[in-house]
Design brief:
Blueprint: E1 5-8, E2 16-17, H1 44-50, E3 54-57, E4 64-69, E5 72-76, E6 91-94, E7 98-102, E8 105-108, E9 113-118, E10 133-134, E11 137-139, E12 149-153, E13 161-163, E14 168-176, H2 188-203, H3 205-208, E15 214-215, E16 221-222, H4 225-239
Antiparallel strand pairs: 1-8, 2-3, 3-14, 4-5, 4-13, 6-7, 7-12, 9-11, 9-14, 10-12, 15-16
Length: about 240
């Protein structure tokens, strides 16, 4: 497990491990049962991905609104007098379609690891389309000890992205610094073995999903096959 260390400049809240906000951006507290409306947290692959990194919380009292005006990003906030210990305002236009935010944070991952900025998972569940859109970037912190700034993409015309105090606005994950993947097609034997496993799983799905199948308000059928198998594999791994 890599150790992620941080230092801050100014009165900024520290990064924190992402937890699902229920009720909140991860959905409402509705059971997996007939007649419930489907919620983001109902999907195990999404919840595992959402909790993978750390998040930053917007610290300022001033609400910041981002729009696209005549083909250029526009940043609107009543910033007031600048403090003595930080760049003010902390946002700057970055070309026509992007803007930067000086987050005054330094993260240090171990050698061989890097830090990747990502849109916060609530961006993908926000029906109001007001969540800021962070641009992915890879930071090699073992030789880059500088305070971070991050880049965001301006919204399309007619949409407003909003930074509000106390709301998460970006996530960061730690991953291997080098994408050393060896991409190859499966051999015929490997593909046949995977196909056999897939067919066995499909044939056993009713048994594996027993007691977990339900129909949402949009008449979408859900079952807990993946969730049941995840629990079984995790239990086996812990017992070994």
């Amino acid at each position: 497990m890599p150790l992620l260390k941080y230092r801050l400049h100014g009165l900024r809240p520290p990064p924190r491990i992402i937890k699902l906000a229920i009720p909140g951006w991860a959905g409402q507290q509705q059971p997996r049962a007939d007649g419930s409306h489907e919620q983001p947290w109902h999907c195990l692959p999404y919840t595992e991905s959402a909790r993978y990194g750390v998040e930053l919380i917007y610290p300022f009292d001033q609400e910041m609104r981002v729009t696209n005006f005549r083909g250029r990003v526009r940043l609107e906030a009543d910033w007031g007098e600048p403090p003595d210990d930080m760049m003010w305002p902390p946002f700057r236009a970055f070309g026509a379609d992007y803007y930067s935010y000086q987050i005054s944070l330094d993260l240090e991952a171990p050698s061989g690891w890097a830090i990747r900025t990502e849109p916060h998972p609530r961006y993908f569940t926000d029906s109001t389309n007001t969540t800021p859109l962070a641009v992915p970037a890879l930071i090699r912190s073992d030789w880059w000890p500088m305070m971070f700034f991050c880049i965001f993409k301006a919204p399309p015309r007619g949409v407003t992205h909003i930074f509000r105090k106390g709301e998460p606005f970006i996530s960061m994950i730690v991953l291997p610094a080098e994408p050393e993947l060896d991409l190859q097609p499966m051999t015929e034997d490997e593909a046949a073995e995977r196909e056999l496993r897939a067919r066995r799983l499909a044939a056993s799905r009713d048994r594996l999903a027993a007691g977990t199948r339900w129909v949402s308000t949009t008449n979408t059928v859900f079952d807990g096959t993946y969730r049941q198998m995840f629990r079984a594999v995790r239990s086996k791994e812990r017992s070994e």
